[in-house]
């Protein structure tokens, strides 16, 4: 294990991807994922890894190109944000349908309009149902670890599915943190070379991406869903293996000071660290509060969520995206769905916060927790927090 | 490949070294098998079969969504004996870029056998000249070692004969129908081969299945190019053109003989007609009268069509006669 080095998280993410010895990367620039794409290009240009970097003319082509490369059996990577992810949308569901284990770095960002380059989770939430595995990093160390884990999860023979690693734009991608990198030898041991089930080569011709008539389409959809649901087992195995090797623990729902908690806060992404400070402050004031950090978004960890909220009276769910005209934040609607049939479920309060890069401070979390009983009484399914009216 | 080279002499109109037995030299192996679901008389399916023969086994195909993908890969069947991938409608060139990069790096790293395998991206006119033009331009500009072949049947035939920007002037389509207030499609066909020439790719050609040896020669030539190459193949669609299935080959020949779709290649910037230039182009009506899509056209529209064909052909001949290759310019 090496010593911690101070590094910008996006740059560290590129270093992590390079440690995975990728074969092909295709990226189109968009803020705030740019530094991942740039630094990876640097690494390849310097010959530190032997890979092809395709300077595509759009995100649509970026994902298309990595899919073509992945089809040949290459280990592939792309990165994007916001409108870029939206521009990939057409291709996103085709990647899991073709069982191509592409890894994507996402510097999460608000979507237009109004145009806004700062962080929230609107981009990934709009692509929620495209069949990709989706994990969220709290901090730079988690981002680095998750990229290496991502290749192993995606390329597992029982999975062979694409995965995106989410990092909050700017709040995470552009901050400098002390990061511990595994050595190349450790990564090589952890992550064996990708062995495709089938690949594009004249020695064994295959047809990929064929036409599915109504007789077969439903079965194809079901097969994909089954694989994605079952992928959780592999994710847990990989995280267990990581913990054994590197000592850092990963769980679908991480908990902080939840023992005896009557109120639980739930966050996803980099807000978790701020929320921890709020929990510390509230605990000092005698409020029985704890924190849940959702790291696995797809496949959704139903069992873990149900277990984690047991005993709590109130669950305050924070969302960083709006499902317009819908049930509130997308995270909260998943949680509600997960808990609906449960006996003694906590009351759920949903706050939508931190949109388009607006700061979420310790005090905001404290206010949300303290205001939860009132918010519940108001009868609203959700509140957009901190709106100036 | 050199055995099949055709060198016409424009002055005399004589093809000097055309091998009469060229047809017998064509690979007997089929890489695009029978049993697919194309319409009767489909020029495109024939063109793909010819292309595959010319490409041979060491090839990977990236296919855009369109007729050819639909008719050839109904799961669990496939007509392709070559490795083949389809992702979506606009991105065959981008997928091909990735395939090319993947094969290159995997070969370099010793993960696949160290043999040259050609990447070929194919699409119809919709997937090439309209929605896929950006990806095509990107792939050509980046210089991937890849051949792109456009099979141009002059409309979105797969979805029911809607107009594309490759649809000829005056053709009636389901989205540019002829009616009391409209002559059908009002615009002239977009000249994508010329757009590809402007990308400075080493090899650009037009082709048609009705000239199989010429087409296969071009595919072989393009295959040998190290870098990007583009072939625009006119593919007769009897269904969409409202023509008889039996007239497929004849229509392809008439498109060439009338000068509507001249067959030429542009090698390192140098233009060359590959099929002997007729003494006099046949009137466009010879081509039009066999197709229902032009049935409604009056004298005025046909007159405009003829005039424009003459002009376009003259422009092309101007280039054939005047433009020097890059090597000559360096000279």
Quick one: overall form of chain B?
globular
Distance between the termini of chain A: 52 Å
What are the low-pLDDT stretches of chain B, counting only 5+ consecutive residues below 50?
none
Sum up the overall morphology of chain A in one term: globular
What is the structural class of chain B? alpha/beta
Low-confidence stretches of chain A: none
Task: Supply Rg of chain A.
Answer: 21 Å
Average pLDDT of chain A, rounded to a whole number, is 97
| Count of helical stretches of chain B | 13
Strand order of the largest sheet of chain A: 3-2-4-5-7-6-13
- Counted beta strands of chain B: 12
Can you describe this structure?
The complex is a heterodimer of chains A (389) and B (331). Chain A is globular. Chain A is 40% helix and 18% strand. In chain A, α10 links the parallel β11 and β12. Chain A has a seven-stranded mixed beta sheet with strand order 3-2-4-5-7-6-13, sandwiched between helices. A six-stranded mixed beta sheet of chain A has the order 10-12-11-14-15-16, sandwiched between helices. Chain A is of the alpha/beta class and 389 residues long. The relative contact order of chain A is 0.12. Chain A has 14 helices and 16 strands. Chain B has 13 helices and twelve strands. The two termini of chain B are 27 Å apart. An eight-stranded mixed beta sheet of chain B has the order 4-3-5-6-10-9-11-12, with helices on both faces. Chain B is an alpha/beta fold and 331 residues long. In chain B, α2 crosses α8. The mean pLDDT of chain B is 93. β9 of chain A pairs parallel with β4 of chain B.
Topology:
The complex is a heterodimer of chains A (389) and B (331).
Chain A: E1 5-8, H1 9-19, E2 24-26, H2 34-45, E3 52-54, H3 59-71, E4 76-80, H4 82-88, H5 94-97, E5 103-108, H6 122-126, E6 133-136, H7 140-155, E7 163-168, E8 176-179, H8 184-190, E9 207-208, H9 214-246, E10 253-256, E11 263-267, H10 271-284, E12 289-294, E13 296-298, H11 302-308, E14 314-319, H12 330-339, E15 347-352, H13 362-370, H14 372-377, E16 383-384
Parallel strand pairs in A: 2-3, 2-4, 4-5, 5-7, 6-7, 11-12, 11-14, 14-15, 15-16
Antiparallel strand pairs in A: 1-8, 6-13, 10-12
Chain B: E1 8-9, E2 14-15, H1 22-25, H2 43-55, E3 59-63, H3 67-72, E4 84-86, H4 92-108, E5 118-124, H5 125-130, H6 133-142, E6 146-152, E7 178-179, E8 182-183, H7 192-198, E9 203-208, H8 212-224, E10 229-234, H9 238-241, H10 248-257, E11 264-267, E12 270-273, H11 284-288, H12 299-322, H13 326-330
Parallel strand pairs in B: 3-4, 3-5, 5-6, 6-10, 9-10
Antiparallel strand pairs in B: 1-2, 7-8, 9-11, 11-12
């Amino acid at each position: 294990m090496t010593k911690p080095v101070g590094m910008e998280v996006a740059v560290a993410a590129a270093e992590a991807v390079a440690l995975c010895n990728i074969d092909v990367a295709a990226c189109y620039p968009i803020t705030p994922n740019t530094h991942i794409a740039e630094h990876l290009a640097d690494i390849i240009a310097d010959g530190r890894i032997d890979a092809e970097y395709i300077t595509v003319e759009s995100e649509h082509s970026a994902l298309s190109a990595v899919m073509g490369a992945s089809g040949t059996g290459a280990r592939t990577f792309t990165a994007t944000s916001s409108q870029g992810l939206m521009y990939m949308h057409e291709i996103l569901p085709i990647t899991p349908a073709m069982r191509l284990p592409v890894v994507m770095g996402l510097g999460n960002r608000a979507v237009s309009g109004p145009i806004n380059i700062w962080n929230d989770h609107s981009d990934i939430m709009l692509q929620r149902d495209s069949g990709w595995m989706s994990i969220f990093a709290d901090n730079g160390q988690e981002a680095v670890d998750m990229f290496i884990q991502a290749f192993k999860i995606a390329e597992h023979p029982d999975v062979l599915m694409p995965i995106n690693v989410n990092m909050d734009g700017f709040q995470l991608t552009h901050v400098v943190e002390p990061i511990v990198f595994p050595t190349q030898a450790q990564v090589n041991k952890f992550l064996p070379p990708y062995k495709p089930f089938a690949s594009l080569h004249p020695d064994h011709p295959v047809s990929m991406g064929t036409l599915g008539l109504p007789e077969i389409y439903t079965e194809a959809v079901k097969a994909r869903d089954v694989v994605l649901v079952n992928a959780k087992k592999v994710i847990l195995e990989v995280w267990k293996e990581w913990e054994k090797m590197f000592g850092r623990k990963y769980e679908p729902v991480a908990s902080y000071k939840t023992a005896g908690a009557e109120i639980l806060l739930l966050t996803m992404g980099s807000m978790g660290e701020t929320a921890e400070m709020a929990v510390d402050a509230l605990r000092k004031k005698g409020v029985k509060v704890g924190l849940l950090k959702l790291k696995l978004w797809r496949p959704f960890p139903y069992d873990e969520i149900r277990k984690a909220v047991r005993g709590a009276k109130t669950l305050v769910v924070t969302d960083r995206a709006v499902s317009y005209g819908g049930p509130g934040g997308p995270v909260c609607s998943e949680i509600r769905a997960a808990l609906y049939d449960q006996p003694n479920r906590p009351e759920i309060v949903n706050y939508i916060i931190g949109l388009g890069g607006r700061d979420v401070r310790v005090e905001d979390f404290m206010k949300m927790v303290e205001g939860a009983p009132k918010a519940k009484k108001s009868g609203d399914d959700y509140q957009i927090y901190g709106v100036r009216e | 490949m050199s055995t099949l080279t055709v060198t016409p002499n424009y002055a005399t109109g004589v093809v000097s070294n055309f091998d009469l037995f060229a047809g017998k030299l064509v690979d007997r192996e089929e890489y695009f098998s029978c049993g697919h679901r194309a319409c009767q008389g489909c020029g495109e399916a024939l063109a793909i079969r010819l292309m595959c023969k010319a490409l041979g086994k060491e090839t990977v195909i990236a296919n855009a969504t369109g007729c050819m993908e639909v008719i050839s890969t109904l799961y669990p069947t496939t007509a392709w004996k070559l490795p083949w991938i389809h992702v979506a409608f606009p991105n065959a060139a981008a997928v091909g870029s990735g395939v090319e990069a993947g094969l290159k790096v995997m070969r370099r790293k010793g993960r696949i056998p160290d043999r040259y395998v050609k990447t070929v991206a194919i699409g119809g006119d919709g997937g090439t000249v309209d929605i896929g033009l950006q990806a095509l331009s990107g792939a050509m500009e980046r210089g991937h070692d890849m051949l792109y072949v456009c099979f141009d049947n002059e409309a979105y035939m797969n979805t029911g004969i809607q107009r594309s920007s490759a649809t000829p002037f005056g053709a009636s389509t389901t989205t540019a129908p002829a009616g009391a207030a409209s002559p059908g499609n009002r615009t002239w066909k977009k000249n994508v081969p010329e757009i590809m020439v402007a990308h400075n790719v080493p090899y650009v050609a037009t082709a048609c299945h009705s000239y199989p040896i010429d087409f296969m020669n071009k595919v072989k030539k393009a295959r040998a190019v190290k870098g990007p190459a583009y072939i625009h193949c006119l593919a007769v669609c009897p269904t969409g053109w409202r023509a008889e299935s039996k007239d497929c080959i004849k229509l392809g020949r008439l498109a060439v003989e009338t000068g509507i779709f001249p067959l030429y290649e542009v090698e390192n910037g140098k233009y060359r007609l590959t099929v002997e230039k007729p003494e006099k182009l046949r009137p466009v009506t010879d081509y039009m009268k066999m197709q229902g899509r032009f049935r409604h056209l009056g004298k005025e529209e046909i007159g405009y069509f003829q005039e424009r064909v003459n002009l376009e052909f003259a422009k092309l001949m101007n280039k054939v006669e005047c433009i020097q290759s890059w090597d000559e310019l360096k000279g």
